[in-house]
Queue: 2 jobs
Job 1
Amino acid sequence: MTLARRIIPCLDVAGGRVVKGVNFLDLKDAGDPVELAAKYGREGADELTFLDISASVEERNTTLDIVRRTAEQVFIPLTVGGGIRTTDDVNTLLRAGADKVSINTAAIARPQLINEIADRFGNQVLVLSVDARRAGTTSGYEVTTHGGRTGTDLDALRWIEEAISRGVGEILLNSMDADGTKEGYDLPMLEDVRAMCSVPIIASGGAGKFQDFSDALNSGADALLAASVFHFGEMSIPDVKQYLDSQGFPMRIQRK
Amino acid sequence: MIAILDYGSGNLRSAQRAFESAHSEVIVTSDPDICINADGLVVPGVGAFGACMEQFVAAGAVEILDQRAATELPTLGICVGMQIFFAQGVEKNAHKGLGIWPGEVTQIEAPILPHIGWNTVTPGAGSQLFTGIENERFYFVHSFAATQKIEGAVNSITQYGVEFLAAVETPYFVATQFHPEKSGDAGLKLISNWINGWVTL
């Protein structure tokens, strides 16, 4: 008996709606994040992630409402990322019903934020989101911001190492080279990060077919995040989990 | 009535709704009188052992549990809320726990920590908490755990690097290292088992 690998659908939200395409026919309102979260919960998602890409404070407040309404009806872990700058931001999200938060840009700008969050809430609430791509830094990978558009010259492996020592509990590793390609997760990068990383890794970016998921697990991922393949119904969560189960990976398979 | 003790830790919203799925009256409160007299008390807990214990003491909750033990009313500890039932925790530094149960809460020995995700539990003999959900997975998120079985209690075990206590059942104090309120349908069933087996006899 072993710990199950996790499948985590990710929803980008802004202004109370799911943004970036979602294409379901069986939902009354495909753009409602709470309804979509509940659907994924019923289908056996092991966790849910909301990424708040709001541009304004007003929009951000609607995200809190989404978190509240989701936490009231979906009894699986919920991670919320986007716009978190302070421990008070974290507290507000946790009180609203989030179980974990993910931070990215704010931690790059001020790494001490990691220590502050971990000291107050424990490292298990804190996911470090790393948008990495190939570059001429020491490890061959650099950290980017603004969805991969801006390089930072920060070496991705050194940054992960530092963030773990400061107290992050998980790494969400998003390959900016693989993101959107649907040609599979970035396996070499996953293996390089796995070799030096003592906390769980959530792989993100590039999922397009069943075998991509098993390849990523074989390369050391503990959990797999995907968005568009689920939103557009190209693959369903139960099908992905059944496939991985048939490949011998420990999975949480829901019984009827 | 079931009271969920609010002493400053994390996400209580899901906990409240999860318990409401099996009981008509559930409140989140820090009021000592309500907590002392509630038919069932839930002690949640996130964060580090020491910080959690500090907040617990500051909220006057030690007295609450003493009173409930004296009046033999049921209490359920979850995650760090379970850990502080033990005599001592050694997260960051050594911290005194409530000492309801003997033994220490120590760091799990495993290559990847925290232990995050859905794991199986081997229910102890005579477990009521796991009735009907013996083969389900539950959601864990922690790096520390108690490993020494409690004499005279039903000890349920999970394996991650080492064997540790996933749940303990005694006549009044029950605790789970995992989060039943985050464990989907299996977790809701466990909550209902606790309510039916301990709270509303």
Job 2
Amino acid sequence: MDEEEAYILLLLSDGNLPTGSFVASAGLESYATHGFLTAGGPSGSINDKLLAITEFVRDSVMTYARSAVPFLSDAHREVQRHLDAAPVDQDAESTLRILVALDDLYEATTLNHVARRASRSQGVALLTLYSKGFSQPPLPDQPSSDIDARAGVASTLIDKLKLVVRREDTPGHLPICWGVLTAALGLSVERSQFLHLFLHARGSLSAAVRMNVIGPYAAQQLLLHTIRPLVIAEAEHCRHLRTGLRQLSAGSDQVPLFDEDVMTEGGPAMTWPLGEILASRHDLQHSRIFNS
Amino acid sequence: MQTIGPGVGRIVLRPHGSEAVFSELSYAYPLKLLSPKVSQRNTAVVYVLSYGGGLVGGDQIKLSVEVHDGSSLVMLSQGSTKVFKTRPGHQLAQGQNLEMNDLTCQHFDIEVSPGSSVFLLPDPVTCFRSAKYNQVQKFRLSGDASAVLLDWITSGRKSLGEEWVFNRYYSLNELWVDGKRIARDAMLLEEEIPIQSVPTRTLADRLQPYSCYATVLMYGPLTQAISRTLTAEFEAISVFKQHTRPSLIWSISPISEGEGCVLRVAAGESEDVRRWLGRALRPLEGIIGMDIYRRAFA
């Protein structure tokens, strides 16, 4: 990893990034309310709680990874290709069309309305973050370099995508927007996948701390020791998963199509039906502190 | 009659007077289709069966269905679809791929024309120890067609101590409306790959305390009333902090701005899920008729 990539990683893993993730518990709050953290009895020891949280994070990371990483990877690849072709091919339309097709497919695949809502709002927040927080500040009299040119193409693409999302022509889901953002910032697809899963796991642990299920030290301890091998294993497993999006030649006018055979045999899939039901019941909780 | 490949079937249903008539109903071993006579207007029932009451490793069912011009088709099974474990060295049907011989596939492709409807209401799938099962069900609706798709699975033969011990279960349900994929429900259940220095978490651990999971996809004008009723019932629930896990749990989510919905239910016993579904989907009685409805949820 070069220094530049390390710097971007530090930036993106900042818990203060305005991405809206602090109002998401990815279903943990509903899981707890429905008695799943206290399956061993309400007076369970701290070890029982740590174990229960670990189990939640494990199942949650797995099902999220298998459903979302293929979208992230394909969106990242398409944006990277778009940027590599710049400035020769600055037509953002074909890349946009592919991103919208991925986004539509993710919408159709995400059948739980609470997760869909959270994913949309976090996705849009990432696009805003890029244009407001990560784009080049306008500096007068600076000679433009190749790096500037690339960043300019990325900004244009993201602005256009934002516009399509604002017009409600596409939902703007988190994994797609994450792939777009990280590719625009020059992060490799492997780093992007890994960081996304790490942040998903860390988000659940932060939610557990806010819910007062575990303390902040215990959360760090879990994240460093117990959760790490789980995130590593899942990132490794999902590295090559794709949605089935066909490779189209650059600037192609064709409507993006998915390879139905890939989609049927090994496309994105949910692996935890229990998590789906519990997350969908989020809004039924009599009192709640999270939005999902 | 023209010969068709093993496990292949085809159903074409059209209205004729006040009856729904099969203009085509063909099938080949190990698939079997039976259509009992029913009295419901413009509605037909077909039982999708397999010889011997189950599927074994290597079986590949490929059924294509067309429902035309305002007719209704109800697709049922007789008892749960049992997927037997791999039988090493069992005799292969002609033309079967050797490498695929432990995987059982069931592929339904169902086209529903405007004004027509299809109701797929089978018993649950039960995968035995070490079974590998791949199920793909694609519904292609046009215009104001309606569909109800029930897909459910039990943990195995509990009486023999089997609880989520099959090798792999992959189920894909897709709903296409006028050429657009509006819902893709893909579920993969398998043991996780062992992670070094991390205790094993089995598939059963992940799915406990429930032994039966059901998903219902609904779409179209005929399903609107049920969908509205269940959504209202769902939204009226208020969950206070519980210390024990509920014995049955369900959820409903709208799809495609409320044109359809996905309903999910889990419970400790499949009979509890059946009873719950039988109640929740009862308004279907008014559409497919009480007799047929009772065949599905008896």
